[in-house]
Each structure stands twice: as structure tokens, then as C-alpha cells.
């Protein structure tokens, strides 16, 4: 993986994580607890780590 692609992926994860946390804050109390939607960034990071680990094993 090139350095630029890795940095772009990290930047995208940060932006998507921030958007998820903002959405969780906006709907907390009305639709669902805020902590439930705030798990999105953690799940995204876990998915990326699992994906990268799978590629290293090949």
C-alpha cells in the first residue's frame, strides 16, 4: 500500500468517524442513545484492521 493511499484512508476514517459522532450527538435521546451510534467509528476501524490483517496473511 502506498503512503498516499494509507494517508487518504486514515483521513477518510477520521472524517467518517467525526460525522458519525456528530450524528450520534444530534439524535441522542430522540432516536437512540448517543453511545450506541458513537460505536460506528470503532467498528469502522476494527473492519479496516481486520481487512489489512487478512491481506498480510496472503
Summarize the structure.
With about 60 residues, the chain is mainly α.
What does this protein structure show overall?
The chain has 58 residues and is mainly alpha-helical. Helices cover 81% and strands 0% of the residues. The radius of gyration is 14 Å and the shape is elongated. The two termini are 14 Å apart. The mean pLDDT is 78.
Number of helices: 3
Q: Poorly predicted ranges (pLDDT <50, ≥5 residues)?
A: none
Number of strands: 0
Distance between the termini: 14 Å
Helix fraction by DSSP (H/I, runs of at least 4)? over 70%
Write the layout of secondary structure elements.
Blueprint: H1 3-27, H2 34-37, H3 39-56
Helix pairs in contact: 1-3
Question: Which structural traits does this protein have?
Answer:
58 residues, mainly alpha, elongated
Amino acid at each position: 500500500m502506498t503512503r498516499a493511499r494509507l494517508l487518504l484512508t486514515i483521513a477518510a476514517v477520521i472524517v467518517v468517524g467525526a460525522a458519525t459522532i456528530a450524528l450520534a450527538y444530534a439524535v441522542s435521546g430522540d432516536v437512540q442513545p448517543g453511545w450506541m451510534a458513537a460505536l460506528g467509528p470503532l467498528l469502522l476501524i476494527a473492519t479496516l484492521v481486520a481487512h489489512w490483517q487478512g491481506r498480510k496473511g496472503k
